[in-house]
């Protein structure tokens, strides 16, 4: 009986650790999403994911988000905050591999689908230390954006305003797409309406 209790306790701890890992996982760079080996599109840096299973160099992940009924290829954070999570190459793939959980109507009468889908990615694209990646994003923002002007607070703009703000700076400074996307995602996750 004692051995059974120890085994159950150990199993509970392992399950809890796995659950915690899955809930705290993020993508470390723009990554192809696959289904049965087919390239469907991409998932963006710092997008939260649930890790369902890992095998060798592949991981099965779950993505949750929202998509506009009339443009289902883009998966975003939610109805009001359009932080891009994933984008599909075509409408057919998006419709085929995402399950609609619930439909919502926004303030403008547009219909949004709350969705989730299970996909395969390369395990190297899951951040081993999400906090370290987020710190890197913060430092990259501070270093890149304070060279020419006063650095606005990360909560100075909304989730939807930050991409346009950063894009307007591209006339003055050239950032690699990878760096620009990391900065935008960091700012969106710390925006005035991020919580």
UniProtKB/TrEMBL annotation:
Superkingdom of origin: Bacteria
MF terms (GO), sorted A to Z: electron transfer activity; heme binding
Alphabetical UniProt keywords: Signal
Gene3D superfamilies to which the protein is assigned, alphabetical: Cytochrome c-like domain
InterPro entries: Cyt_c-like_dom_sf (IPR036909)
Keyword presence, rRNA-binding: no
Record's signal peptide: 1-22
UniProt keyword Signal present: yes
Any coiled-coil regions, as ranges: none
The name this protein goes by in its record: Cytochrome C
Organism of this sequence: Malaciobacter halophilus
